[in-house]
Design goal:
The chain is α/β, with parallel strands linked by helices. Helices cover 42% and strands 10% of the residues. It contains 18 helices and eleven strands. The protein starts with 5 loop residues before the first helix and ends with a helix.
């Protein structure tokens, strides 16, 4: 509930830390911004702090949610950068109130038309892309791999909606299956029976719908004897690893991103890159794998204030500050490839700039999505790299579209594509 975050809203100091990379880790003026929304629209309401002020005004009845405000609320990738930059110096929750503002919009029936269509597609076809459910398993045709609807498997590979339906990305998903099979993993997929993780519904503000939707997914996998979930999609990883825990939905299944699992297989000597790939790349940290991908830390208690009006959590609250996301595994996989040189951009790890596709922006505001992607491409070019590599299909898709939109020449790869070429 929005009311649960009142104390944080009141204590926003309007310091603007939510807009920038913290000064202590800043590497230069050009790439000092951290929030795409305030960077693009240059009005305080679009920043993390501005969104808290707006939420407080709505909560206290001083502002009504109208069409213009809905536009502002949804021109946000929900990337969490504002939240992490704020927590460098302060202990405030910024992202969760933003989620609650979207939930309020959903409850009021005030959402972008594009998002209504996306949700209709999820309800009717079980995916976020408004594609026929019957086509979900086409990406895996010809792969000799177990189907968990027919055979039990210890490890389940979850492709996710975008890998399942975007033919341009099929090679990465098929590559994941081929690599895991080569390593001798007892692997299964769901094929046409795979269901959307539902994480994007949560981001769009359909929190209650996600809470009803998520348990069915986990139950099906547990009934199939799955002990480990591996996914190549950062959004799906975030859903299984973080959001399910956030709503109190726990299971005994372990959750790994494919780069984590490959890192483990490399250490075990079960896969070994051999072919040289002589190129220079830079790595983009996906928001849902990085700062948003660290494990959920539950807290139940109450907020009180001391005589100086400072917030005190009883019991003490442990904060998620983005530092425990998945950062080293994808870099380790890339560094294992002979001949490949990895160089870093200015904004990396918990202070990575968003690819632009998150939070439903790619559906409702594609121009903003591409603008955000091109800002990252510019940063990648500035390193001298020949290609930008990442580990999320939404990032790959948006970067490729952004480059095409500007007639650029930089190549975009999924980590899996390069790794499979090398083995």
């Amino acid at each position: 509930m929005l009311e649960d975050y009142r104390e944080y809203m009141i204590r926003c100091a309007r310091c603007s830390n939510c807009k920038f990379v913290p000064h202590a880790v800043l590497k230069g003026y050009r790439y000092a911004n951290i929030c795409p929304s305030i960077s693009r629209y240059n009005f305080h309401t679009y920043s993390g702090g501005g969104r808290l002020v707006t939420a407080l005004s709505v909560l206290e009845g001083r502002v009504e949610i109208d069409e213009e405000l809905v536009d502002i609320i949804y021109k946000c990738q929900m990337c969490g950068a504002c939240d992490i930059s704020c927590k460098y110096g302060l202990d405030l929750e910024i992202l969760d109130p933003i989620y609650e503002m979207r939930a309020k919009c959903v409850a009021n029936g005030q959402v972008p038309e594009a998002h209504k269509k996306v949700m209709d597609g999820l309800r009717k076809e079980g995916n976020m892309l408004q594609k026929p459910v019957i086509e979900r398993g086409k990406w895996a045709e010809g792969l000799e791999v177990k189907n968990i609807a027919e055979e039990r498997a210890e490890v389940y590979y979850h492709a996710g909606c975008l890998y399942s339906y975007d033919k341009d990305l099929w090679s990465a998903a098929r590559g994941a299956v081929n690599i895991l099979k080569k390593a001798g993993v007892d692997l299964g997929i769901a094929g046409k029976n795979e269901a959307c993780c539902g994480g994007r519904a949560y981001e769009l503000g359909y929190i209650e719908e996600f809470i009803k939707y998520a348990p069915n997914n986990l139950e099906k996998l547990q009934n199939a004897g799955v002990k480990t979930i591996v996914t190549s999609c950062s959004d799906c990883y975030h859903t299984f690893k973080v959001l399910c825990s956030k709503i109190g939905l726990e299971s005994n299944m372990k959750v790994y991103h494919i780069t984590e699992y490959l890192s483990y297989l490399i250490d075990q000597g079960k896969v070994k890159p051999q072919r040289n790939i002589d190129t220079t790349v830079t790595y983009h940290d996906p928001c849902h794998l990085g700062r948003l991908g660290e494990p959920w830390i539950p807290w139940k208690g109450k907020i009180v204030t001391d005589p100086n009006k400072r917030i005190i959590h009883e019991p003490k609250k442990e904060w998620r500050k983005g530092t425990n996301g998945i950062y080293e595994a994808p870099r380790k996989v890339l560094k294992s490839i002979p001949g490949l040189k990895l160089i870093e951009m200015d904004r990396i790890k918990e202070y990575s700039w968003c690819c632009g596709a998150g939070g439903g922006v790619i559906d409702a505001f594609p121009d903003f999505s591409l603008w955000t992607g091109n800002e990252r491409i510019s940063e990648a070019k500035n390193t001298g790299a020949q290609a930008i590599v990442t580990s999320c299909p939404w990032c790959v898709r948006n970067f490729r579209d952004a480059i095409k939109d500007t007639d650029g020449t930089m190549k975009v790869y999924d980590v899996l594509e390069l790794f499979e070429q090398s083995i």
